[in-house]
Amino acid sequence: MQVRTYRNLVDGVWQEAAGGQTMEIFCPCDGELVSRVPASGQVDVDRAVAAARRAFEEENWAFNPRLRSQCLSAWGAAMRANLEELATRLALETGKPINEARFELNSSIGYVEYYAAAARTLYGTSTAVEPGLLSVLAREPVGVVAVITPWNYPVTLLMRDMAPALAAGCTCVLKPAAQTTGCTLAVLELLDQIPAFPKGVVNAVSGRGGTAGQALAEHPEVDMISLTGGLETGQAIMRTAADTMKKVSLELGGKSPNIIFADADLDKALPFALKAIFTNAGQLCTVGSRLVLEESLVDTFLPRLKEEAEKLRPGYCMEESTTLGPVISQTQLDTILEYMEEGKACSQLITGGYRLTEGGLDKGFYLAPTIFLNPPMDARVVQEEIFGPVLVVQTFKTKEEALAIANGTAYGLASAVWSRDIDKAMWVARRLRAGSAWVNCYNKLLPECETGGYKQSGMDRAGGAEGMLKYTEVKHLCVDFGI
């Protein structure tokens, strides 16, 4: 395995951190060294922000939608041409199976392609207020955007958040997650293949959240912060951003309910329920971590789900047969094991609940797919985001009870309902307090459609038209042409 070394991107120049310090990234599958990246600080952030500000004010970008569309299209094409190499780097840094890494890259390209087209459709409105007076509401880019991305889906969430910012005419400074900086910077290296991309429009600084990320949040020349991450991080960003009145877009945690009624198409629901929680070892903000199951299905559907969960094949990320990867780190593994012990103490353990160590898995951070049945509603495994392969099954008798269970946490990112009775399904879906409510499917995350959180799952939306409009300001232009 080749160890790759990456550098920061500032004003079109790849460079080491000002202090010369680096960080190392290890594969969660076996602990092998994968990448070396800069450990940036305040000086590096200042340089990157200055470059983004210069590009915003001086380059032919903010008011040239055709150029923006052209550059984003070319970037998407370059990603597609290098998909296998990018997927390999992504798999090695995250530990996710190579097939899941390929899926993530294709999803990422979908966002770039969508916003490449959307860049040319940033419409405003006009109103003839009175004779000789015309009011125009124009959409203009917000300015310099700091994009702070997480480690679980580093490339998809990079492009979901940064592509619309660029499409809107903003310039960006990226701060990737420390655990997955290399594969994120590998995507940015493709910009060198696109001569039309103005220097300084995209910049990147690698470093710890408490240093580089904090410096971006505090920087007076950053106009907006776009963050996908945990609740505590989002709260800290909001507090810091208030000092300089930055715009903030936050997608935070989730504890998403997946409601299955007895009259659902259970053969269709089963693989969705499995993937909703165990894809990427449960490390997904919209993961269906609570299966809200009609009581009569406990003796029929639940055994089938248990059987399928136990068929998942843990292994090295680059093996095509692997269907279950490790969690990202020792810290994450230890946290999840604590939740597992609490779940065992307050509910019925259906399967799993332990670390996987046989067959060389002890070198990585592997956990058995775990299912708990009916812990109390106030249990931590019900109320808190675990971010691992842990499913809580909660049973109900009526649709009203199902709805109460589903809405009974502080989160509201995603949800789903399964039933052949479309009236019942829609009655529930419209009342779910979540930014996404899927009916007879799960995790249909589409570039054309908005996602985002209610309650403590965040603010603002990503994807779709709203995902681009949030990176704009509305300017009122009033033209008096009366005689």
UniProtKB/TrEMBL annotation:
Keyword Oxidoreductase: yes
InterPro entries recorded: Ald_DH/histidinol_DH, Ald_DH_C, Ald_DH_CS_GLU, Ald_DH_N, Aldehyde_DH_dom
Domain (Aldehyde dehydrogenase): residue spans on this chain: 14-476
Active-site residue numbers: 251
Residue intervals passing through the bilayer: none
Keyword list, A-Z: Oxidoreductase
Gene3D superfamilies: Aldehyde Dehydrogenase, Chain A, domain 1, Aldehyde Dehydrogenase, Chain A, domain 2
Listed SUPFAM superfamilies: ALDH-like
Family: Belongs to the aldehyde dehydrogenase family.
PANTHER family (UniProt xref): ALDEHYDE DEHYDROGENASE-RELATED
Protein name: Aldehyde dehydrogenase
Organism: Pseudoflavonifractor gallinarum
